[in-house]
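Researcher: I'd like a candidate sequence for this fold, 446 residues long. If you have to choose between options at a position, lean toward the conservative one.
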């Protein structure tokens, strides 16, 4: 019906309201659509901005990672360079130190006065302290740089204990202390050298901080692990120093005895912690101030070995005689001072010595068929780039028999250790301790 034919005012109002409402809804929908369109554009712009910011952040993060990798490589390289420097420096320093040690030992044997012997002992102690400090600093450097790789093998504890007993019994005797090792017939899985150093450092500390009583070393089987206990009757460790004792240059509490107060360098237990972590051998201790300390080292037990191998091991530790009279020694050493000092010491032991500084000189020495060596002692690094291990191989080939041999070197690197082991050659590190050298020579010749 046309609007002009409607004469009902109220009806017209309703129709008008409906039309206005429809128009308003239509406008709202258009407005909402436009608003949504604007919102979509705004969101797209914000997403683009955030994406660019994220890409920029990722690029900065990648660059930071590259910088960190570069810095890490530089730090590792610096650490390795430091280790190589310390190894080279220690080698150069240990050569004259070794010569001095051997010369003093030879001098000690010809001293007739008590005053002279006393002075010689003082010099020997100073030289030993210097050598121990250099070796310890080098060990810390290598462990921190991560270049020490354990050589895990079966270790016979009784043989290890026998070696430690021979080293520390004179120290205990000088202080009127008792040193006991409980017999044990067991094999463990460890690095023989590192495990020995751990026990050596703990024993050294135990004897240093004990004034009366003594030190006892024993073992307890704990299933898959063997617990090695080192118990002393020393001054003990206070509870507030339980962690501090494993820090570098931390020394035990001062005691009245001047010898105890001025003893160690404070590096022994720091080395113990690093070596134990490298081997994954937990080290703990219990202590009572004034009564003593017990250190515990937990080492994995080795797999069952044959009765033949177990019975053969104790034979290695039977006491050997020290008679070297008439022993023919081929000494290969390129350092004149060390050569002279070593030759002098061997001659004091009534050995017959022939010297060489290279492989060719050593072979020339063997041209005298009336003289053949009973043992060869060689430095590892010789003149002309020769290696002592290779020299010993050529000497053995020339003689046609595996003559006993010993490498003495100031280079403690794994390369040298592996070369000696592969050739079946014993190895000692400079500076040499004459008593240990003499015992090893007697053992090799027996």
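Model: Candidate sequence:
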């Amino acid at each position: 019906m046309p609007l002009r034919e409607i004469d009902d005012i109220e009806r017209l109002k309703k129709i008008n309201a409906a039309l206005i409402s429809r128009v308003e809804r239509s406008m709202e929908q258009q407005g909402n659509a436009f608003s949504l369109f604007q919102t979509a554009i705004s969101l797209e712009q914000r997403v683009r901005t955030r994406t660019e910011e994220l890409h920029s952040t990722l690029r900065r993060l990648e660059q930071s990672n590259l910088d960190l990798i570069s810095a890490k490589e530089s730090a590792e390289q610096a650490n390795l360079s430091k280790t190589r420097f310390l190894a080279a420096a220690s080698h150069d320093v240990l050569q004259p130190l070794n010569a001095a040690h051997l010369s003093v030992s030879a001098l000690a044997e010809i001293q007739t006065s008590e005053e002279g012997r006393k002075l010689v002992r003082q010099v020997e102690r100073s030289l030993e302290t210097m050598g121990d400090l250099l070796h310890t600093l080098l060990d810390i450097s290598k462990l921190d740089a991560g270049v020490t790789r354990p050589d895990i093998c079966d270790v016979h504890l009784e043989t290890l204990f026998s070696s430690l007993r021979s080293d520390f019994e004179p120290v205990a005797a000088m202080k009127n202390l008792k040193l006991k090792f409980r017999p044990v017939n067991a094999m463990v899985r460890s690095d023989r050298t590192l495990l020995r150093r751990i026990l050596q450092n703990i024993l050294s500390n135990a004897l240093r901080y004990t004034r009366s009583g003594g030190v006892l070393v024993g073992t307890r089987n704990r299933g898959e692990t063997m617990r090695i206990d080192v118990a002393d009757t020393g001054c003990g460790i206070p509870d507030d120093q339980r962690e501090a004792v494993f820090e570098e240059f931390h020394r035990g509490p001062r005691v009245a005895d001047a010898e105890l107060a001025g003893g160690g360098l404070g590096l022994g237990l720091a080395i113990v912690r690093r070596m134990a972590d490298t081997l994954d051998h937990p080290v703990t201790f219990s202590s009572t101030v004034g009564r003593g300390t017990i250190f515990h080292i937990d080492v994995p037990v080795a797999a069952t070995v044959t009765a033949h191998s177990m019975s053969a091991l104790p034979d290695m530790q039977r006491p050997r005689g020290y008679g070297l009279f008439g022993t023919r020694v081929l000494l290969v050493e390129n350092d004149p001072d060390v050569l002279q000092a070593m030759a002098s010491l061997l001659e004091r032991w009534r050995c017959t010595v022939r010297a060489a500084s290279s492989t060719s000189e050593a072979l020339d020495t063997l041209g005298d068929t009336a003289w053949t060596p009973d043992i060869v002692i060689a430095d590892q690094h010789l003149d002309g780039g020769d290696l002592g291990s290779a020299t010993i191989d050529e000497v053995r080939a020339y003689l046609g028999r595996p003559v006993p041999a010993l490498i003495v070197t100031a280079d403690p690197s794994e390369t040298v250790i592996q070369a000696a082991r592969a050739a079946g050659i014993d190895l000692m590190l400079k500076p040499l301790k004459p008593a240990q050298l003499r015992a090893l020579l007697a053992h090799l010749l027996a």
